[in-house]
Design brief:
There is one protein chain. By secondary structure, the chain is α/β, with parallel strands linked by helices. The protein has a single domain, classed as 3-Layer(aba) Sandwich (Rossmann fold). It has nine helices and nine strands. Strand 1, helix 1 and strand 2 form a beta-alpha-beta unit. Helix 1 crosses helix 7 and helix 3 packs parallel to helix 4. The longest helix is centred in the middle third of the chain and has 29 residues. About 40% of the residues are buried.
Length: about 260
């Protein structure tokens, strides 16, 4: 299996949730980490909590504004000389019905979750091609496998990631660049608190689905094992991830079951 020991690992969304937990667990495995998100103050706190903070680098980044991604990538290369792993974990969720959400909400979510995500990958890709090695890890969602209440734009953005990265993994195999798409189900993170509502404001509440979900520590442990094994896709969660299999083999039953689930 792959190792993270002494590897250069870039993590977006590193100030909270899955991204933050990735940083904590990767640091314990002796990785050299670039921590990115919009929240510079929180990134500083996360970095200071690590055993050897001097080994790591803070690089503030806004996924909705991709103009400086090439410049940021060069800063990483100047400091570390290479990029071994890119964990695209930043993003935003949604809590609004499609009919009540203006097109600007769809565009905002797609800009962050899809265009921001693939823009950073495209900035990093030339370095990985030059190295003839690299591994891109994408945090999608179970909503990337099927739609759900109050998640139309969010689900669409995650579906789009699957199409892009499934194509990329085929194209870049010749350059020894791996891709892993991670599909978490209900995970106990602040994702619902920060979700965008119909008027563009934050949902501001921890949903029951998140509060009762798998711990973020267990989720990230499974993620890292899947990456080490170079899995192309992994579903992580509790019983909710069985819905993916149900949809594939028993679609009529799937739609009956999913329609009765609580959106929050």
């Amino acid at each position: 299996m792959k190792s993270f020991n002494d590897k250069v690992v870039w993590v977006t969304g590193a100030s909270s949730g899955i991204g933050k937990e990735l940083v904590l667990q990767l640091a314990k495995q002796n990785a050299k980490i670039i921590l990115s998100s919009r929240n510079s103050e929180q990134l500083e706190l996360v970095k200071k909590s690590l055993k050897s903070p001097y080994k790591h680098m803070i690089l503030p980044l806004d996924l909705s504004n991709q103009k400086n991604f090439d410049e940021l990538t060069q800063k990483v290369i100047v400091k570390f000389g290479r990029i071994d792993f890119l964990f695209n974990s930043g993003g935003v969720s949604q809590r609004s019905e499609a009919s009540e959400s203006g097109l600007e909400i769809d565009r905002k979510i797609m800009e962050i979750n899809y265009f921001g995500n693939i823009a950073l990958t495209k900035a990093v890709l030339p370095q990985m091609q030059k190295q003839k090695s690299g591994h891109i890890v994408v945090t999608s969602s179970i909503a990337g496998k099927f739609g759900f209440y109050l998640r139309s734009a969010y689900s669409a953005s995650k579906h789009a990631l699957h199409g892009f990265y499934e194509s990329l993994l085929l194209e870049e195999a010749k350059n020894n660049i791996a891709v892993t798409i991670v599909c978490p189900g209900k995970i106990n993170t602040p994702i619902s608190t920060n979700a965008i509502t119909k008027d563009g404001t934050a949902h501001g509440e921890m949903d029951h689905n998140q509060a009762s979900g798998m711990t973020v520590e267990d989720c990230v442990k499974e993620m890292l094992v899947a990456v080490k094994k170079e899995k192309k896709e992994v579903l992580i969660g509790n019983k909710e991830i069985k819905a993916v299999t149900l949809k594939r083999f028993l679609p009529k039953l799937f739609w009956r079951v999913i329609s009765k689930q609580s959106p929050v």
